[in-house]
Design goal:
heterodimer, A: 388 residues, alpha/beta, Rossmann fold, 2 domains, seven-stranded mixed sheet, six-stranded mixed sheet, 12 helices, 40% helix, globular, B: 285 residues, 10 helices, 8 strands
Amino acid sequence: MKQVLEGSHAVSEAVRLARVQVVSAYPITPQTHIVEAISEFCSDGTMDARFICVESEHSAMAAVIGASNAGVRAFTATSSHGLALMHELLHWASGARLPIVMAEVNRALAPGWNIWTDQTDSLAQRDTGWIQLYCEDGQEVLDTTLEAFRLAEAVNLPVMVVLDAFFLSHTFEPVDVPDQDTVDRFLPPFDPRFRLDTKNPCAFGPITGPDRYMEIRRDIQAAMDRAPEVLAAVEQEFFSLFGRRYGAVDAFLCDDAEVILVVSGTAAATCRQAVGDLRKTGERVGMLKIRLFRPFPATEIRAILPKAPKVAVVDRNVSFGAGGIFAQEVKAALALHKGNTAVYSYIAGLGGRDITTATFQEIYLTTKDTPTPPAESVWVGLAQEERA
Amino acid sequence: MSKSAKGSHHPLDDLLRTDRIPHIWCPGCGIGTAFSACLMAMKASGIDLERTAMVSGIGCSGRGAGYVKLDSYHTTHGRAIPFATGMKLARPELNVVVFSGDGDLFAIGGNHFIHAARRNVDLTVVCVNNLNYGMTGGQVAATTPSGSKTTTTPVGNPEAPFNLPLLAFASGATYVSRWTILHSRELTESIEEGLVKKGFSFIEVLAPCPVNYGRRNRQRPMDTLRAYQEKSIIMNDADPTRLQIDFDRAIILGKFVDTERPTCVESYDRTCRPPMEPADEEKAA
């Protein structure tokens, strides 16, 4: 049924439909609406679950790890500093192969306290063994959260569903909320591969010496390697039941493009508009939205980007000393390709600064008019006096 | 505040970053009164304000550090006390005031509070307790009374709150008191005592949060103040185990602990650093 839902509540609805049994969280703006709604669902009986507001995000992740190990479907949500505080336990969740799902609302990191959107928080966790999916709109948030449980439980890895602060978490859109019976068909009850079981007692987290550790890490990598294929299968089934699919990447007007703009998150919606506008004026421009960031969909990217001579990656994030993070990954993915596609890297919209259609037009024109890509990322939309 | 009437000055203007005013605190919030009491105590105590720093964590009370015209530090959530501990180790002569909220100091930062009290770090910790996480929209906190409604406990809090003075006492704080913003004179005097006292001083200040806590719990702003007036009992040296806040029966206020023991830096220097030569001691003096 179509409802006008806040982005945050699209997550909450999906968590209810997924029949999650334990939710543990600590409040942080702009994640709060997600867990507030869940606490209401637990209290009004529409969700058969327990919610605990613990004393920090570190505890929140530890508690969902405990719950997942005890054999139930577990969920948490956080943002920014909260995610950073969880860092240690993010490694634990993936290392223990627990299919936890977390909503992560992209928000900038301090100092320079800022509650607005910026992807550096989640991208800084790229090496923790979590699958990461970046969402464009409210419907995608709900659908991705449902898919995340299937994906996580199929490969035994945790999944982070990422949404932009405010632009997505606090905006209202019509969202088709599926009925419980169909969701139950898509997402059967959790059948944990690893759980506490007194009939078959296991010791979790023992010392693992140099003789065993590396193989365990290789297994995590193997699970990551399987994730794109599993996601495709999960999406196929999702499509057959609900009529929607998103893909690991989404190519828009890329076939004949001279320049492909590469984006993620809500900026993709703006980029679609900008690409459409530019096409009307005869410009040959396309867009590639990257939805799956971990594992990085290199195969899909290599099938699309080399069609164009130039690619402009727009990063709402920065790795100081290296530049835009999606750009680095795209360059690495294309390194194995024989083509001559040039990758231009742009940084825009940090700390919630707006990325408008004009921003994309400027990036497109700069890319078109610059014969070879600069070695460093180009910062777009800086105030003049701030240039150092 | 300072700019409300042309030509008028607030008596604390010299300690405020007036360019940051108006502040963010909601109508009916108690933090402003607690903050004023803290600044007035700083002035009255005679401490060297050139050698005074204010440290806050995150939350509504955490904004205090941004409004005070002294060296101030708006740290990450829960970490005001460890940042302040580092300052005291580097510059033991500084007066370091931690001004923060209950969520910051006793949930995400709870571990730091008990350890700084145990070490007797020479800090003055003023905790504005408004019984919930106000800034993020009124979620349940470690201080929320049992049964209270919040945005994450819509049918009532199933948990028991901390008794903060008991926690401070049990952890080793050498000065512990509790007042409300209605008792602003006693509060100011207590913060002043804490400031001049060496060692870990803890002052809990009960403050209303009508917008996020009060309206979900049938407490209009005046109701909360009336409860502070009618239910409070001043009982200095009360048994810390009897200080659980109970709005239906009694809220015990007063000074509960005032003892002496070596501070963190004193103990460290005596135990872990080589004794000074007489000549160095003269120089240090």
